[in-house]
Every structure is written in C-alpha cells, then in structure tokens.
Amino acid sequence: MSLQSQIVDALKQSMIAKDADRTGTLRLIKAALGYAMIEKKVETLADADVLAVVQREAKKRKDAIDEYEKAGRPELAAKELAELKTISEFLPKQLSPEEVEALVRDAIAEVGATSKKDMGIVMKAAQAKAAGRADGKAISALVGRLLP
Question: What is the DSSP code (8-state) at residue 45?
C-alpha cells in the first residue's frame, strides 16, 4: 500500500471515528499532496514525493511550534504539536545520533572529503543516505564538526 493511500485511509478512519483534530490535520496533508500532484501534473505521487510533502508539512509545524513558544502562546504551540504528532505517523523512523554519525562518517569516506571545502559534496551524499530519516540541520552540524 502506497504512503498516499495510507494517508487517505487514515483520513477515512478519522472521519468515521469523528476525530475532528486528526481529520483536520489529515485533510491538510491531503490538500498538500493534491497541490504537489497538480504541480507535477500526475495522477498519483511516488512514495518519495509523498514523503517529501509530509516532511515539509512536519517542518512547518516544528517551525510554528518554535515561533509560538517564543511569542508566549503555549495553546497554539500545543495545537501545532498535536498536528505534528499526527503527521509524524507517516514519517520513517528517525535515526539515532549514533546512526547519523556513522552515516556521515561513511559519506565522508565515500567522497574522500579532506576539508570543510568538501562540505557540500558530503552533505549531498549524507542526505541521500539518510533519505529523510535524519534532520538536515543535525547532519550539517555533524559534517561541520567531523571535517577538519
């Protein structure tokens, strides 16, 4: 079952269960997927494209949570956190810090990086290996720390 159909099925189930908050979040994801399909001019999206859309929606929620907390609006941050929890169900399991470090070390060895000048090449290789299972900021910080 594709990721897109899993999201649609989850939406149907939440509507049957009359879970308004979950239904609203899933409708937002489905709308974002619809926009991506229109943009790409396709009938259905590949799982990689669906994953990219879901990750983008999760990042929006994380950024909103940070902003609401800075502004002293915990009730809005809690709402965004609930949405993020629903969205996270469709994201792959995140790598542990040790796994991310091993992945970055492999990427450095693979491309033969010797200095910070090679950071872009290492980032590209590491991001490809992570395939959405690690945060780009964490990978970038680790690459910066590991390269001389």
Answer: -
Query: Counting beta carbons within 10 angstroms of the beta carbon of residue 140, is it exposed (0 to 12), middle (13 to 18) or buried (19 or more)?
Result: middle
**CA separation for the pair 36, 9 (Å, rounded):** 19
Task: Say yes or no: 82 and 116 in one domain.
Answer: no
Query: Measured between alpha carbons, how far is 129 from 87 in angstroms, rounded to an integer?
Result: 22
Same domain, residue pair 41 and 112: no
State the average pLDDT for the chain.
87
Assign residue 67 the CATH number of its domain.
Answer: 1.10.1510.10
Whether pTM > 0.85 for this model: the answer is no
CATH number, residue 107: 1.10.10.410
User: What is the SS3 assignment for 10?
Assistant: helix
Q: What percent of the chain has pLDDT over 70?
A: 100
Q: Nearest CA to 45 among 106, 86, 4?
A: 4
**Domain span at residue 31?**
3-88
Tell me how far apart the alpha carbons of residues 148 and 7 are, in angstroms, rounded to a whole number: 43
